[in-house]
Design brief:
With 376 residues, the chain is mainly alpha-helical. It has a domain at 2-36 and 150-375. It contains eight helices and no strands. The longest helix has 109 residues, at 97-205. The radius of gyration is 43 Å and the shape is rod-shaped.
């Protein structure tokens, strides 16, 4: 028995070490997430600055368009004036011939100015179209950067929740290890006392056959008390461990499903099992848990536990079908169901702590009194 308890203590210490490693990895993950958030924020600022520059460029394009419009108007007016001058020169006959040549050249220049103005306007229109498209792209990139920051923040929250869960598991393992190591000393002392008491009892029994027979019966009762104490401690410890593990495992489903919906984690079909196939469900429906079915809260666990696993399976199915909104709606049920399961498990733990697992000191006192009755 002492060897078995030492093995339990060693396993608890090993589990505590693994939990510490998981906590360290989660902390490192949070650091990486914070770095990613900083980088995305910097990128978002750069994109916003580029968007402002593109808006300024668009404004400059409009200003250039206005100037070109003025030039075009001047060219058109100049063309009309040159045409009028040519008409007047023709009326003047030979004396106006030189002036007609000048007017014709002015008209040609005005025509070329108009053509150049049209080309500039065409270029400005294309530039404006490219600028507008760039502004749209920048705006979309800015929105995506903001969304990425939001997702990264959610990832940080999820990692923080994981860290808290790991811390709780570490504390539980440490408590189990400490309690178990303490029991090693108790059981070792009780074993030594038993051997000593049996030896003394044998010496006393040699004095009188009648006294030996009566004392043997009483000693058997004392040994039975010790066995009952050991049995109840072991069952209570294992049950407490199973209930603790089940509570944190089913609370963790909220974080796992949130990450699955956000695309930051994956879930395989093997991980999504029915309420009968999860570790807690196997124990809950086994003969080992039957003795606790007189507890109302223990019986009440079955319904939300089954609904929780059904909801988890349905969420995975809905996301696979691309029905994101329905999956998000069902996630809120998972949140409530996992909390309900955890609450019922805590009530069962409280009940067991009062009615099922007697205190160690009372059992030790009862055993000591029984042995005293035998020997003295």
């Amino acid at each position: 028995m002492v060897v078995s308890i030492r093995e339990v203590a060693a396993n608890s210490n090993q589990a505590s070490g693994l939990a510490n490693q998981a906590r360290q990895q989660a902390t490192e993950g949070m650091g990486v997430t914070q770095d990613s958030i900083s980088a995305i924020n910097a990128l978002a600022k750069d994109i916003q600055q580029a968007e402002r520059v593109m808006h300024q460029l668009e404004s400059h394009n409009q200003e250039i368009g206005g100037i070109v419009a003025v030039i075009r108007g001047i060219a058109e007016q100049t063309n009309l004036l040159a045409l009028n001058a040519a008409i007047e020169a023709a009326r003047a006959g030979d004396s106006g011939r030189g002036f007609a040549v000048v007017a014709d050249e002015v008209r040609n220049l005005a025509q070329r100015t108009q053509e150049s103005t049209q080309e500039i306007e065409s270029i400005i229109d294309r530039l404006k179209g490219s600028t507008d498209e760039a502004v749209v792209v920048m705006k979309r990139s800015s929105e995506q950067a903001v969304e990425s920051v939001s997702r990264a923040d959610e990832t940080g929250v999820a990692l923080n929740a994981i860290t808290e869960s790991v811390n709780a598991i570490t504390d539980i393992n440490a408590l189990i290890a400490e309690s178990t190591e303490g029991q090693v000393t108790v059981f070792s002392t009780l074993s030594q006392n038993m051997q000593s008491n049996i030896l003394q009892f044998s010496q006393i029994s040699s004095m009188s056959a009648d006294q030996t027979r009566d004392s043997s019966v009483q000693l058997g009762d004392a040994v039975g008390e010790l066995q009952m104490f050991v049995s109840e401690y072991t069952v209570s410890g294992q049950t407490h461990s199973k209930l603790q593990a089940a509570k944190y495992a089913h609370l963790a489903w909220k974080t796992r499903i949130r990450g699955f919906l956000d695309g930051t984690s994956t879930l395989t079909q093997d991980e999504v099992v029915s309420h009968l196939r999860c570790d807690f469900g196997k124990w809950y429906h086994s003969a080992d848990a039957r003795e606790y079915m007189n507890i109302p809260e223990m019986v009440a666990i079955d319904r939300p536990h089954e609904e929780l696993h059904q909801a988890i399976t349905e969420v995975v199915k809905l996301k696979g079908q691309g029905r994101r909104e329905e999956a998000e709606s069902l996630f809120r049920q998972i949140d409530a169901l996992s909390s309900e399961v955890a609450s019922l498990i805590e009530q069962v733990e409280q009940y067991l702590g009062i009615a099922v697992a007697p205190s160690k000191s009372n059992r030790e006192v009862a055993f000591t009194e029984a042995v005293d009755d035998v020997l003295f």
